[in-house]
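Practice problem 4.
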C-alpha cells in the first residue's frame, strides 16, 4: 500500500503545484475568456488532488477507509487523464500527453497493489 499512498500524495501535490505555477505565470487565459467553465474544472481538479493526498496519507497510516477513498480518487484522476490531453494536443504540446498516459499506467499499478 505504500506505493499507492506515495503515488496519491505525489500526484495530488503535483496537480496543485502545476495549477499554482500556471496561475502565477498567467498561463490560464480561460480565467478571463471562460471563467465559469474553468472554475468548475479547477474545482474538480482540486477535489481530485485533495482526495489523492488524503487517501495517500490514510493508506500510509493503514486506515480502514483508505482503500475506498484511493479508488475513488484514482477514478477521478483517470477521468482527468483522459479528458485533459485534448487541450494540450490542440496546442501541439505533446509532452503533456506522455505525462497523462504515464499517470494512467502508474495509476493502474497503484490500484492493482491496493486491490492485491
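Answer key:
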Amino acid at each position: 500500500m505504500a506505493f499507492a499512498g506515495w503515488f496519491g500524495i505525489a500526484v495530488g501535490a503535483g496537480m496543485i503545484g502545476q495549477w499554482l505555477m500556471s496561475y502565477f505565470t498567467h498561463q490560464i487565459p480561460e480565467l478571463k475568456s471562460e471563467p465559469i467553465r474553468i472554475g468548475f474544472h479547477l474545482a474538480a481538479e482540486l477535489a481530485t488532488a485533495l482526495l489523492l493526498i488524503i487517501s495517500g496519507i490514510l493508506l500510509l497510516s493503514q486506515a480502514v477507509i483508505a482503500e475506498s477513498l484511493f479508488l475513488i480518487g484514482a477514478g477521478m484522476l483517470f477521468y482527468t487523464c483522459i479528458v485533459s490531453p485534448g487541450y494540450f494536443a490542440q496546442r501541439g504540446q505533446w509532452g503533456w500527453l506522455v505525462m497523462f498516459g504515464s499517470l494512467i499506467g502508474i495509476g493502474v499499478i497503484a490500484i492493482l497493489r491496493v486491490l492485491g
